[in-house]
Design a protein that fits this description.
single chain; 391 residues; alpha/beta; 6-stranded parallel beta sheet; 3-stranded antiparallel beta sheet; 18 helices
Length: 391
């Protein structure tokens, strides 16, 4: 789908690499620029196996890797030569760094006016916090995500996966796709500014509706839904947890299956708003009834009658599940000395196209010679650049 699109990728850690990996596995040629001898610091992050990082591998499949010392003027000259052949540049430097290095959008559009350039940063290129550094947990704290996550009365906690990094990556890939489409019509390049902070705040529409409409500050509710009852985790007879939800029509079925008192089949309990106003009573009735059977038995029964529910699975159960396998969410590829390794696929399914691993995770600088020769450097020149610490 993105065949013939070339991306120069200056990003590191999570938000940028996840974004560019999506582009790569939809056909784009992604050239990852790394620091000579060191590379992206996540190459050394847990979990490790035979000098390969599982963290790095999860975010950098299907890319090429070149090394450039961007503090050297001759490296910037190389960047500008490569940019002439590119459609997209992605960077996640702190605001101002790209300009200081001489590889900002303004610098690079001089050699490629049609360039699409994405800047990913913690707080964006403008605003009072634009100069601040911030990783995903900092953004979760600052945007209020932590204040909303955790059990009632408990301490604020972060999400198990980096929601700020992931959301900004998804927005970034979508924005690049939109800019490429626009360019196909107007022949104009584009500059895109995406902040992790903005990305998280933009996700909270239904939560923000509470202060917008009721002038109330949303609180932590654990597994409970702020607008719907029932919708939470319940303990079952074998010690496992299940999550159960019902709408107004399913409520009567749930009452029958749980053998709830007849009064719960009458108002106010027959409407979602009525159950919401009597949350504690309703939840207690459901919880007491669910202690009579195992989680698996309840889930089987509820599914037979069309009541939405699930066991609260751990990740091992998810990765081994038939649902995960049947949806082709596990992918394998051959990775140098590791042999066959497994990762997670992207979720989209196309009728006439396919997202796939196009090449293994690159070794540090694996494609430096290839890219430099392509723009006219000889083997002896490349050797000199390496000896001088430029590449």
């Amino acid at each position: 789908m993105f065949e013939n699109i070339r991306v120069l990728d200056f990003t590191r850690v999570f938000s940028g690499p996840f974004c560019t990996q999506m582009l790569a596995e939809l056909g784009a040629e992604v050239i990852k620029v790394e620091v000579p001898k060191k590379g992206d610091e996540t190459r050394g992050w847990y979990p490790l196996k035979q000098d390969w990082s599982g963290y790095f591998m999860a975010l950098n499949r299907s890319k090429k890797s070149i090394t450039l010392n961007l503090k050297e003027e001759r490296a910037i000259t190389i960047v500008k030569e490569v940019v002439k052949t590119c459609d997209v540049v992605v960077e996640n430097f702190a605001p101002g760094v790209a300009k200081r290095l001489g590889i900002s959008y303004e610098d690079l559009k001089e050699v490629n006016p049609d360039l699409i350039y994405l800047s990913l940063s913690a707080y964006g290129q403008s605003g009072p916090n634009s100069k601040l550094k911030g990783y995903d947990p900092i953004i979760q704290a600052d945007t209020g995500v932590m204040s909303l996550t955790g059990e009632k009365g408990g301490s604020p906690v972060k999400t198990a996966f980096p929601i700020a990094d992931i959301s900004s990556s998804l927005y970034g890939a979508f924005a690049i796709a939109a800019a490429l489409y626009k360019r196909s019509i107007t022949n104009e390049g584009e500059y895109i500014d995406i902040a992790l902070y903005d990305s998280v705040v933009s996700l909270m529409g239904i939560i923000a509706a509470i202060p917008f409409f009721k002038n109330e500050v949303p609180q932590r509710m654990g597994s409970e839904h702020p607008h719907r009852v029932p919708s939470r985790n319940y303990l079952t007879g074998d010690g496992s947890y299940i999550h159960v939800i019902s709408n107004e029509s399913q409520w009567f079925i749930l009452c029958d299956l749980l053998n709830l008192d007849e009064k719960y089949r009458r108002k106010p309990y027959t409407t979602d708003l009525g159950r919401l106003e009597n949350r504690e009573e309703v939840d207690n009735q459901i919880q007491n009834a669910l202690l009579n059977k195992s989680g698996k038995d309840w889930v089987a029964l509820f599914k037979d009658y069309g009541v939405p529910c699930s066991l609260v699975n751990n990740l091992d159960q998810v990765l081994k599940s038939e649902q995960t396998k049947s949806r082709e969410l596990l992918i394998s590829w051959t990775q140098d000395n590791l042999g066959e390794v497994t990762g997670l696929n992207f979720p989209y399914k196309f009728l006439h196209s396919q997202s796939k691993v196009t090449r293994p995770v690159p070794k540090l600088g694996e494609h430096t010679n290839e890219i430099l020769k392509e723009i006219g450097y000889t083997s002896s020149q490349i050797t000199n650049l390496r000896n001088e610490g430029i590449i």
